[in-house]
Amino acid sequence: MAIELIEGSLAIAHGAALCRPGVISAYPITPQTHIVEDLAKMVADGQLKTEFVNTESEFGAASVVLGALAGGSRAYTATTSQGLALMLEVLYNCAGMRLPLVMCCANRSLSAPLSIWSDQQDAMLMRDSGFIMGFAEDAQEALDLHIMGYKIAEDERVQLPYMVNVDGFLITHTFEPVNIPDQKLVDEYLGSYKPFQVLDPANPITMGCFTEPAYHMDVRYQMHKANLESTKVIEEVAASFEKKFGRPSGGLIRNYKLDDADTVVVAMGSITGLVEEAVDTLRGKGQKVGLLKIKTLRPFPTDKVREALSGKKHVVVMDRAMSAGYGEILGSEIKAALYGTPNPPAIDSFIYGLGGRDIHEDEIIGMINRPNPGTHRSEWVGLRPDLLEE
Amino acid sequence: MEDLKQKLMKKHLLAPGHTACAGCGEALGMRLIVDAIGPNCIIANATGCSEIFTSKYPQSAWEVPWVHSLFENSSAIASGVEVALKARGKTGIKVVAMGGDGATADIGIGCISGMWERGHNILYVCLDNEAYMNTGIQRSSQTPFNASTTTSPSGSESMGNQTLKKDMIAIANAHRVKYVATVSLANPKDLERKVKKAVETVGPSYIHFQAPCPLGWGFDSDKAVEIAKLAINTGLFPVIEYEDGQLVKVQKIAKKVPVEDYLKTQSRFRHLLKSDAGKKVIAQIQTIADANIEKFGLV
Hints:
The complex is a heterodimer of chains A (about 400) and B (about 300). Chain A is an alpha/beta fold and about 400 residues long. Chain A contains 13 helices and 16 strands. Chain A folds into two domains: about 1-245, Rossmann fold (3-Layer(aba) Sandwich); about 255-390, Rossmann fold. Chain A has a seven-stranded mixed sheet with strand order 3-2-4-5-7-6-13, with helices on both faces. A six-stranded mixed sheet of chain A has the order 10-12-11-14-15-16, with helices on both faces. In chain A, about 55% of the residues are buried. The mean pLDDT of chain A is about 100. Chain B is about 40% helix and about 15% strand. Chain B has helices at about 1-10, 25-35, 50-55, 75-85, 100-105, 110-120, 170-175, 190-200, 215-220, 225-235, 260-265, 275-295; strands at about 40-45, 65-70, 95-100, 120-130, 155, 160, 180-185, 205-210, 240-245, 245-250. Chain B contains twelve helices and ten strands. The mean pLDDT of chain B is about 95. In chain B, α2 (about 25-35) packs across α8 (about 190-200) and α4 runs parallel beside α6 (about 110-120). Chain B has one domain (about 15-295): Thiamin diphosphate (ThDP)-binding fold, Pyr/PP domains (Rossmann fold, 3-Layer(aba) Sandwich), CATH 3.40.50.
């Protein structure tokens, strides 16, 4: 085990490489590029033995890894934004075919207007796909979620692809001290890939059948159920990971100073570090504030969210994406989770940081201390009035 | 006799009981092709007629391992399977990708270009029935000049599809595909030989099969082989073979047939026979056939 000061992308590349995927296929797109460059260099230097396939598009890369899984190999890809959008048809197909891909997404905004900077709009394309969706808060967790991702995806009770979401640039291009686990430990933890379905002339199977109405709905239900029930596996894996590697990481949710809090901020991804600072600042002034970090968006940890927010007075949800024509996304899911619970908190939701727009601690404190809690729905924070004046 | 009986009793790798139309040229061709490939293969199939009539859950007509993902990615799926076999140290299994003309020449051409450029050891088979038959006979880039389809219908202002067939053979050769050949129902022995050669090729190989479609082309269900023969003998479907970009063999035309004899067998061309303008188009189609004959030395 070694702690090194490395770029987030290299930590992610180490996370992927430690899982020994037999096939890696990708197409370059900012801010994912450093991840695949690092992996390509590991292959070129003989540090990583894998079939590395450069493709003509993200659509091709997603298809190659789907084929590799059907061919019995552990597989890995990474992308972002437009690349993710181009992969989308294949990714939904991958989940429906119950193939345990692990994919990293360096979260970035979606065009138009074109922006290479970070938000979580791209991830929302995947919300209904069947993928399990984890969100890392720093480079260490980004690495860890790769190992946990394979463990969860390949579990016989799950058999679904796993998406590691990391905020583009904010995590991928930032240098942090990262604990890189020993290969031996990861090998022991993960084992080799044992596919539940594989294309083999000795035992021919047909994969990817089409279904008529008599079958389709039931197959979709099974996928949905496996995704829902993977909450148990995700918790088990978080626990076994902590035991094996000696640090808490991943899981469904994580709390920060939540137990005695009256007001709770709910957030996802790298912003949680800054929210912790805001919580500490306000606690220094005597305000009982806490933080609920959503680590897994799918399956949505409804029970955990209810439990964590039960009895709270005020909840502030931060969305780094929006549903055009509606507004909040995470906000509406938190509200739905709390619907029907006794004495629910007042809930405010804010949309922040789209396309790399900076956000500062005082803005987070401003969200928490807005007058008239419970009346702020999908309020945009950090807009420039000078651009919006008529 | 014994030999024929054995042949008839042989278990095919594409089993009977699939749901293709009666007289489907594609189903017959695919059976011949898969039997020639042999059991030690893995097939990645594009969405389309061939996928739909062989893989309706919970049944499958496939006696070999077979995977379908999407319309436009059978070549990339096959690429993934091929590298997975490499990663697992599995040797001797031939990976095959298949798709119709739309999956090949239109929507899937990007993935095919990638597969060929990377040089995978994969046989790609195009099952060319010259339109989007599975969705109801819409034109593709392989639809013949002035054929009437549901999206290129003939009418008072149109003689049908206004474009020439995209030249997949030239596109394959431009990618340095090692073995490239066209095959026809009218010559099953040649088909078997070429498919076996493609399987033995280490590296990319491409087989382009003309698949007469009774429903889409408008002919009786017992006529697929006859029509395939006419396509060859008019020069409209040259049966040719390339190795490393060099033309090595062509099937000579024994007795050249005018294109009109081919066109009049199919309702997709029937409108051409009815007017002077149509006659002019037939003359243009004759020019296409004659150019093929000259280019490949078919006579």
